[in-house]
Amino acid sequence: MIVSIISGYLHGLWIFRARSGKYAKIPLISSIIVHIGLLVYFKYIDFLIKNINEIFNTGVPLVNLALPIGISFYTFQILSYTVDVYWGKAKVQKNIFSFATYVALFPQLIAGPIVRYTTVEEELEQRTHSIENFSYGINRFIIGLSKKVLLANTLGELGKIFSNTNEKTVLFYWIAAVAFTLQVYFDFSGYSDMAIGLGRIFGFHFLENFNYPYISKSITEFWKRWHMSLGTWFRDYLYIPMGGNRVSRVKWVRNIVVVWFLTGFWHGAQWNFIVWGLYFALFLILEKHFLKRLLNSLPPAASHMYTLFFITVSFVLFNANSMSEALENLQGMFGMLYVPLCGPESLYYLKSYGLVLIMAGIGATPLTVKIKQKLETYKSGRGALNIMVPVVHVLLMLLITGYLVDGSFNPFLYFRF
Predict the structure, then answer these.
(1) Domain check: are 26 and 171 in the same one?
(2) Which of 98, 178, 338, 358 is the most exposed place for a label (fewest CB within 10 A)?
(3) Which entry of 35, 129, 267, 304 is annotated as an active-site residue?
């Protein structure tokens, strides 16, 4: 990270000084090569060696490097800075400590959101601190921590039970798939909430990273609501520079495939992540050409079910350790493994975790926010909320503390990316 910081800082100065000259693109290209090169070396070198060995039957030894924490996130942050300096959207940062603060800002360093330099450019130099910001930050942090500890970790326990049982059924395969779909949302959005909250405590306003993606009525809408900082990064720094949708149909398809291949690959050095990305590319292409018109003609509930179904299937790919494991789980879900449809163990765990699944399903919608907003329209409602919100947050912290003291270590899922 120190090498990346120094490189990003120097490249920014170089780009700024050269951008009006004849060879303005050279420092930009250098920045892209250096930082993408570091990411590829540390994150993907063993994946590339394995595939070369399999294709050419060679015996190149693996490097077995430890993955530097947060490298996927701070690499993209540095690239957004150097590209924006080249485009003239960001002022060059001449203070290396301010630039290092931007890259290594701890609240969102490990798992995002991907904060662009232009978002915090002014706040790196001058921030406003207030009781309101501090209070908002604490409340937002507690909500995020609650998502992680009370919901994501509990759903993760169900996933571990499924992995360890020998009495799998079609129902249990679906329970596990739904549980992980909810787990990954509450785990990742919970971290984002905590990062946004911590940032606000210190005077930084990070952009939102999730907007209730599971209420979407199409895959296209889902990706406008899920991991928004990553989606907009690829849109602004890759998709649009490649021509976006203002090109021929063939080139547009190429752009979509490239962007989603890299989106999947960004998540991990495994084939199932690449297939996961291309899976979404296929749906986005189909929706653009005819599926979206069909979805718009359907009742909202039908298009919503379509989206949830294919998102759940996608996270089976995402959650697997290999393509063979992903295919086995998909076969199990669709009754192709000759396992029973249902069984006593499946029903037992559905009953045991049913309340958590229902709470998570409700929590993935804006229902509670809408209730709160409705109450705020009444004077008595505002008075009740002023008392209830702090009490609920204190109770949540006590409950979280109890879970953490009694539980085991549960890292955030996106740490591994």
Answers:
(1) no
(2) 338
(3) 267
Structural domain includes residue 203:
yes
Same domain, 318 and 377: yes
Residue 112 located in a structural domain = no
What does the H/E/C string look like for the chain?
CHHHHHHHHHHHHHHHHHCCCCCCHHHHHHHHHHHHHHHHHHHHHHHHHHHHHHHHCCCCCCCCCCCCCCHHHHHHHHHHHHHHHHHCCCCCCCCHHHHHHHHHCHHHHCCCCCCCHHHHCCCCCCCCCCHHHHHHHHHHHHHHHHHHHHHHHHHHHHHHHHHHCCCCCHHHHHHHHHHHHHHHHHHHHHHHHHHHHHHHHCCCCCCCCCCCHHHCCCHHHHHHHCCHHHHHHHHHHHHCCCCCCCCCHHHHHHHHHHHHHHHHHHHCCCHHHHHHHHHHHHHHHHHHHHHHHHHHHCCHHHHHHHHHHHHHHHHHHHHCCCHHHHHHHHHHHCCCCCCCCCCHHHHHHHHHHHHHHHHHHHHCCCHHHHHHHHHCCCHHHHHHHHHHHHHHHHHHHHHHHHHHHHCCCCCCHHHHC
- How confident is residue 414, by pLDDT bands cut at 50, 70 and 90? low
Catalytic status, residue 393: no
Range of the domain at 284: 131-416
Q: Are residues 87 and 146 in the same domain?
A: no
Give a yes or no: residue 408 inside a domain. Answer: yes
> Over the stretch 147-191, which tens digit does the pLDDT of each residue have?
999 999 999 999 999 999 988 999 999 999 999 999 999 999 999
- Asked if residue 191 and residue 319 are part of one domain, the reply reads yes
pTM: 0.93
User: Same structural domain for residues 36 and 172?
Assistant: no
Considering the domain architecture, whether residues 17 and 149 belong to the same structural domain is answered as: no
Residues 35 and 169 in one domain: no
